[in-house]
Amino acid sequence: MPEYRIAPSILSADFARLGEEVRNVSEAGASLIHFDVMDNHYVPNLTIGPLVCEAIRPYTDLPIDVHLMVKPVDRIIPDFAKAGANIITFHPEASDHVDRSLSLIREHGCQSGLVFTPATSLDYLDYVLDKVDMVLLMSVNPGFGGQKFIPAMMDKARAARAKLDKYKEQTGRHIALEIDGGVKVDNIGELAAAGVDTFVAGSAIFGHPDYKAIIAEMHRQIALHTQAQ
Ligand SMILES: O=C(CO)[C@@H](O)[C@H](O)COP(=O)(O)O
Q1: CA-based nearest residue to 144, from 6, 28, 44
Q2: How far is the CA of 139 from the centre of ligand 1 (A)?
Q3: Is 17 strand, coil or helix?
Q4: Which of 23, 87, 131, 184 is deepest in the core (most CB within 10 A)?
Q5: Separation of CA 170 and ligand 1 centre (Å)
């Protein structure tokens, strides 16, 4: 049975009270803090950088899961590692040398991962799986919170899990499968059954009045859909 993790996306938090929001979701049962970095170049929005990562670091003991939506990728990796990031993921299309960017993340003491937009092929994984700790599937187009889950991503999750399971059979190493975009209580169970183990949720958590209750309900749905497996 994999460890199922809920990662609130602070993109949907109240930025005026960010430290407090991070503390509140941490105490409410979150497993990771998902940190979306957008540059208004690779994606059409502009968010937060290493200074904000450093500022929230004292508010949680949970791993900070930095999702880079920036181009180029490499220059900013050491800054995030220094700011307290634990996991750093990036989009292969945004890196000049994917293998080098993955190595750079690990050299800086973080877990590494590749992110796939809805239309990006999983083939990018083929020659670099040994350097990947987490695969992040985007189930919306990157740039904004509060979008609708793209249904075709359910099959993509199954395909990704099959690839990662095959790799585990060969090597014994588990690679986490994370999904991001439109994750709610009504689809999280099916996603878990499809093989996803890490769930990013922004508006579903920060838009709910009781963070503890919504995270508990997400775990309940996951358990309901995976117990029989
Ligand atoms: O990276 C992104 C969007 O680009 C996501 O992390 C969103 O922030 C998820 O938000 P919801 O769809 O859960 O509201």
Answers
A1: 44
A2: 9
A3: helix
A4: 87
A5: 33
pTM listed for this prediction: 0.98
Q: Provide residues with CB under 6 Å of ligand 1.
A: 9, 11-12, 34, 36, 67, 140, 142-147, 180-183, 200-204
CA-CA distances (angstroms) from residue 71 to 2, 39, 45, 120, 210? 33, 8, 13, 16, 36
Comparing CA positions, the residue from 1, 83, 18, 152 lying closest to residue 9 is 18
Give the atom of ligand 1 at the shortest distance from the alpha carbon of 149: 12
Q: What is the pLDDT of residues 91-101, one digit of tens each?
A: 999 999 999 99
Say which DSSP state 83 is in.
T
Instruction: Please measure the distance between the N-terminal and C-terminal CA atoms of the chain and give it in whole angstroms.
Output: 9
Tokens representing residue 79 in the block: 């800054």
- How far apart CA 187 and CA 182 sit, in angstroms, is 9
- Each domain of the chain, given as residue ranges in start order, spans 5-226
Nearest CA to 200 out of 80, 97, 87, 83 is that of 87
Given a contact cutoff of 8 angstroms between Cβ atoms, the answer to whether 75 and 86 are in contact is no
Residue range 5-226 forms a domain whose CATH class is: alpha beta
**CA–CA separation, 33 and 120 (whole Å):** 25
pLDDT per position as a tens digit, 35-76? 999 999 999 999 999 999 999 999 999 999 999 999 999 999
Q: Which residues are catalytic?
A: 36, 180
Q: How far is the CA of 223 from the centre of ligand 1 (A)?
A: 23
